[in-house]
Design brief:
Elements: H1 9-20, H2 26-46, H3 65-70, H4 73-85, H5 91-111, H6 138-149, H7 157-170, H8 174-178, E1 185-186, E2 191-195, E3 201-205, H9 208-218, H10 247-260, H11 270-284, H12 289-296, H13 301-304, H14 312-320
Antiparallel strand pairs: 1-2, 2-3
Helix pairs in contact: 1-2, 2-5, 6-7, 7-9, 7-11
């Protein structure tokens, strides 16, 4: 939770702007706050504005506009070096913090004219090594669904099976799944509306497996869900306390089902089920990369393109099936 009283006013203004005008999600705003808190605490230490050496104990509520104006690109480079060398942050973490700093100084210089010069304008992002996503094979996915569907010892069998089914068929995010309300489902059109990153709304089409799993769960879903700040009475998935299911509970459900299926829980998670859905759709559904981008809710096509690299068999077949493959072969 953001402690606004511990922030300088310009930081709070940036956070409020990000949520209200840029429509950033609460999670994104929390991350902005964490990144910039660390950055400003380091700057206060770096500029010898405090005798405290433990960053977690440094207060930044008195960090001034004139202090901001002192920051140069070299100072930001020193901060990134600190992250890499002292805190052992990887390239992905450093890249995210650089992105936050860029957005922050753009707000200060262009949006509000709080300061004149932007020290982050020419800041470079560390080169990231693209890692292929981990995903379940088709056989392992079928095994996971079979185990979940037939788990008679699980009193929440219908709910948990519906959760696994939606993850593996639709490729939705964890936050999107827990946010589903019953009214978001159009059973006539077999369509579901979710709120993705940046509070962007998108439609997800539901196949027969998803519709059947949801209907079977709705038959046993408690009718006395609590009316609370989470709108639990409207939620599709409920916890044992008759409240909207939490992210942690869903993660535990997925871990439990993976274990029952004999799958490695150190390799697979809720997000890996999203990767699995995307990979299976690309591999077997012959889906266009742009359509897959829209389905997954990716802002950039480059994020989706990683799924074009995971199927070596498909690439091999494409080469083998080239109509020129047999040209001029010696008999």
């Amino acid at each position: 939770m953001i402690k606004f009283e511990e922030n300088p006013n310009f930081l709070n203004s940036f956070l409020e702007y990000s949520q209200a005008y840029q429509r950033k999600s609460p999670n994104s705003v929390d991350q902005y706050n964490a990144d910039l808190n660390m950055f400003l605490k380091f700057m206060k230490y770096h500029f010898h504005l405090t005798n405290e050496t433990d960053l977690s104990k440094i207060n930044i509520d008195d960090f001034s506009i004139s202090d901001l104006e002192r920051i140069t690109q070299d100072d930001i480079h020193t901060f990134i070096s600190y992250l890499s060398l002292k805190r052992k942050c990887g390239p992905a973490t450093c890249a995210r913090k650089i992105s936050t700093i860029r957005i922050f100084f753009k707000y200060l210089t262009i949006t509000t004219n709080t300061i004149k010069n932007n020290p982050a304008q020419n800041l470079e992002t560390p080169k990231l090594n693209k890692r292929l996503p981990k995903y379940l094979s088709l056989e392992d996915s079928q095994k996971l669904l079979t185990i979940s569907e037939n788990d008679e010892d699980n009193k929440n069998k219908e709910r948990d099976f519906a959760i696994i089914t939606l993850f593996l068929n639709c490729g939705m995010r964890l936050s999107e799944l827990v946010g589903i309300n019953i009214s978001d489902i159009n059973f006539d059109d077999c369509k579901l509306t979710v709120i993705g990153k940046g509070n962007k709304e998108r439609a997800i089409y539901l196949n027969k497996a998803c519709i059947n799993a949801i209907n079977n769960y709705l038959e046993v879903r408690p009718n006395n869900a609590k009316k609370d700040s989470k709108n639990s009475d409207k939620a599709l998935f409920l916890s044992g306390y008759r409240q909207r299911i939490s992210k942690r509970t869903v993660e535990n459900i997925v871990t439990k089902e993976l274990q029952k299926a004999g799958l490695d829980t150190t390799k697979y998670s809720t997000h890996k089920l999203r990767h699995t859905a995307a990979t299976l759709m690309y591999k077997y559904g012959q889906v266009d990369i742009r359509a897959l981008q829209e389905l997954l809710g990716h802002q950039s096509i480059s994020t989706t393109e990683i799924y074009t690299h995971v199927d070596n068999e498909q690439v091999r077949n494409a080469v083998e099936n080239n109509p020129l493959a047999n040209f001029n072969l010696k008999k």
